[in-house]
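Annex B. Sample input.
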Amino acid sequence: MTECSWKIDSKSSKTYDSDIFLRVKPDCNLKVRLIAQPVKIVKIFTDDRKCINLDSEQTGKKLKEKYPDKLGSVLTRYACWCIDRDSNSLKILDMPVSVARTFSTRVELIGKKISGPVEGCDWSIITNGKKGKDVRYEAVYIEETPLSEEEKQMVKDRKSEEGSYF
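Annex B, continued. Sample output.
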């Protein structure tokens, strides 16, 4: 277990997005183009809001059983590099399982990749306007969007900066 190196939310200001992260959250209306395959992230928060990355949901459940008064719920999300169409910049999209599942379903049903320099598409990610446990996320396919030469260069530049994290 390691502490999260990327803390997305701030307790006081509730700021979720940054120059690096784009978070699927209540009341969002995002338009993105995925660049890489989503990666599963499992984490749990301590009672003092420290985030701990876990290797699996099972590890989280065991920790929660052992320390029920010190740990919150096990949270599973997915993250991947994307182009934020609003800012035309590369960001890490932090999304719930339901959004990642939609991407996966497209691959399984149609057999087309969801990311890559030639195959790939734009997505709109929206919510039902509710909060908490009532919020529902929807990812909607927009259109096929091969990367432009400028976008390919932006990805190449970021890969050279990030190395193995990309």
